[in-house]
Design a protein that fits this description.
Blueprint: H1 2-36, E1 42-51, E2 55-66, E3 72-84, E4 87-90, E5 93-97, E6 100-107, H2 110-119, E7 126-132, E8 137-144, E9 147-151, E10 154-158, E11 161-168, E12 173-180, E13 183-186, E14 190-194, E15 197-206, E16 209-225, E17 229-243, E18 248-262, E19 265-267, E20 270-280, H3 281-295, H4 299-307, H5 309-315, H6 317-322, E21 326-336, E22 339-349, H7 360-366, E23 367-376, H8 382-394, E24 398-400, E25 403-411, E26 414-417, E27 420-422
Antiparallel strand pairs: 1-2, 2-3, 3-6, 4-5, 6-7, 7-8, 8-11, 9-10, 10-13, 11-12, 12-15, 13-14, 14-16, 15-16, 16-17, 17-18, 18-19, 18-20, 20-21, 21-22, 22-23, 23-25, 24-25, 25-26, 26-27
Length: about 425
């Protein structure tokens, strides 16, 4: 008898689970909508939830203000088909355990549909599937089919792409992978193609910025017209951003290229790495606050405020200088048939007192720079070749075996190029 009762309780709980999960899913949707309402671009959100036992239907209508469309409001409608857990199936997924599966469809306003139909061969099919997990995270997959744009002699072919994203409910932590088959732009005189590309991201929101890692790679970029053919192959870009204990941001960006074919010439590989260290988090927080305040202004005042934002940028300069910023370019390399282009540059600013932040003479005393450069003479343009003797005579360049070299240093307010003192104009 106890076994029968236990089986009945288990069966009842399994039967009731989808309905209970439907109630919990409704709450998660409402929590998410509450966060979206905080966006400065969202004017209004209306949600209609029809909850069932195994399924729910959710219609969300969002009114957004987009300055890019001439300060107009755009009404978007999303239709979500929600399948309740704990046992889930279908939607091109195997049988699995989860909180809920959501399949979403965007319904564009008729005006926008008419505008797209005028320039596209078809309105592209877009599929968004999301799995809500018990730990509060969610997995989403966005698929976009190929479509063509053709207008006034310009043809654009957008090839299929797939985006997979894993993130928290509020998307303050995101891991994602993009796989894109590429895009081609064609006009009467030229053609540009971005071949198959992939991107990966693992980022977390920290106040006004995102920290973490990202990368992008592409098989090739090709450009051609009646005079030039250019192909850049095996491109890879990586970036890392972090915050130290003093709330200073550091970021590293690196580029690697396998080969560059330009007309009948071949170059490569090519590399460079850029590092930017010790930028205060407070700078980004201040700029974000300024932008949020501007977004709340009427359209005319918003334009004027954006034009005056340069003064706001100047106001954060003391914060940047006080954090002892560093910028560095290293591993600069381009292999050419005439010899290698190589270089490095490092600029630091340290030891300024607070009262000296806007004193240019003091800044000059604390500024340090170190640059190394080599470049083949054959890569200079005809205009540069006319000035080459003058640059060598001044000591700015040293020529040896058809290669040009230069070393620049600045320390204690003194600038030297190839160990020759160069007077500063300030």
């Amino acid at each position: 008898m106890k076994k029968i009762i236990a089986l009945l309780l288990l069966f009842t709980s399994l039967l009731a689970s989808p309905f209970v999960i439907g109630i919990m899913t409704e709450q998660r949707i409402e929590d998410l909508v509450a966060q979206y309402r905080l966006s400065t671009n969202v004017e209004h959100i209306e949600i209609d939830i029809q909850r069932g036992w195994l399924h729910s239907e959710v219609i969300s209508k969002v009114t957004m203000h987009l300055a890019e469309l001439g300060d107009k409001n755009v009404d978007l409608t999303f239709h979500h088909n929600v399948r309740h857990g704990p046992v889930l199936w279908g939607a091109q997924r195997p049988l699995h355990i989860g909180f809920a599966d959501v399949q979403s469809e965007l319904i564009l306003p008729l005006e926008i549909q008419d505008q797209l139909s005028a320039v596209l061969d078809k309105i592209p099919a877009m599929t968004l599937r999301t799995q809500l997990n018990y730990d509060g995270t969610q997995d989403s997959q966005l698929s976009l089919a190929e479509f063509h744009f053709d207008d006034q002699g310009t043809q654009i072919i957008i090839r299929p792409l797939t985006l997979i994203v894993h993130g928290s409910l509020l998307f303050d932590r995101i891991q994602g992978k993009l796989n894109w088959q590429g895009v081609t732009f064609i006009t009467a005189k030229q053609k540009l193609t971005l071949a198959q590309s992939t991107a990966q991201i693992d980022m977390q929101e920290e106040s006004a910025i995102w920290v973490g890692d990202m990368s992008w790679s592409s098989d090739s970029i090709q450009f051609s017209n009646s005079e030039t053919t250019l192909e850049i192959k095996n491109i890879n870009i990586t970036a890392q951003t972090s915050i130290d204990q003093q709330k200073r941001i550091s970021t590293t960006q690196a580029l690697k290229i396998g080969r560059i074919n330009h007309n009948d010439m071949a170059y490569g590989p090519a590399t460079y790495t850029m590092l930017l260290n010790h930028i205060p988090l407070s700078v980004f927080e201040k700029l974000e606050s300024i932008q949020n305040n501007i977004a709340t202004l009427p359209a005319k005042q918003r334009t004027q405020a954006m034009q005056a934002m340069g003064f706001s940028m100047f106001s954060v300069l003391p914060d940047i200088l006080a954090a002892e910023p560093e910028i560095e370019w290293r591993d600069i390399l381009l292999v050419t048939p005439y010899g290698d282009v190589q270089g490095s540059l490092r600029i630091t600013l340290a030891g300024l007192n607070e009262r000296d932040m806007l004193n240019f003479q003091k800044i000059k005393q604390h500024l340090q720079a170190d640059m190394q450069l080599q470049i083949p003479v054959a890569l200079l343009s005809s205009n540069d070749l006319n000035k080459l003797d003058q640059w060598i005579e001044k000591g700015w360049l040293v020529e040896r075996d058809m290669m040009l070299y230069s070393t620049l240093r600045m320390i204690d307010g003194r600038l030297t190029i190839n160990d020759k003192r160069i007077p500063l104009p300030f």
